[in-house]
Amino acid sequence: MNTHSHLYTDTKVQWENSKAPVPYPLAVEKMEARAAAIAAGESSEQVWLLEHPALYTAGTSANPADLISPNRFPVYKTGRGGQYTYHGPGQRVAYFMLDLKNRGRDVRAYVRGLEDLIIATLASFGIKGGRRDGRVGVWVDMADGSEAKIAALGVRIRKWVSFHGISINLNPDLAHFNGIVPCGISEHGVTSLQALDVDIDMVELDAALQENFIKIFSPIEVK
Questions:
Q1: How far is the C-alpha of 49 from the C-alpha of 16, rounded, in Å?
Q2: Residue 152 in domain
Q3: Is residue 6 part of a domain?
Q4: Given 49, 150, 170, 183, the catalytic residue
Q5: Considering its fold, how many domains does the chain have in total?
Q6: pLDDT tens digit string along 44-92?
Q7: Which DSSP string do the residues of 147-162 spell out, in sequence order?
Q8: Known active-site residue 70
Q9: Can you give the pTM of this predicted structure?
């Protein structure tokens, strides 16, 4: 039984994986064009996996004081919800352009579905990720009793079509997060699968993401 029946459709979603790093402005341009085409009924839904060059993005509720090192990497203002986020090599970014008119028209359920996708993907590698009240993203308990963020989430909805999405830290340079207060939360750290001694590569992470997406959202068609 699919516990996400409100999100699930039988329509195949195009699954694309970019091997070379994608500049952030180009990614936003492509996402916005695809989302508009989906809303107009001219294109199929899409999941786009990629990595970005090292950069910071400022969501719609970003606090300028949270940008500690403004000259370290390029900084892009973005229309997604949330605050400052780092993207860079070793981090899997997944953008979801899905038609929520056919998936229950429930933004809260959609966000929860993305969180469940991350949690199930981490569980594939023995990592127990979870939600935390008042904090966006997916978190893990560390050996020293602290908590750290392993995946971020920021979505935008236009005409009931989603874009932007999630990022999961596989093996990025965690020091790069020091240039911002990630998502406005200074009292907790950031971690990665590698830092948790999970030795997998991006291909294995992608396979787990794909398997769990099919369970929660839709069958796929690989581009």
A1: 6
A2: yes
A3: no
A4: 183
A5: 1
A6: 999 999 999 999 999 999 999 999 999 999 999 998 888 899 999 999 9
A7: EEEEEEEEEEEETTEE
A8: no
A9: 0.95
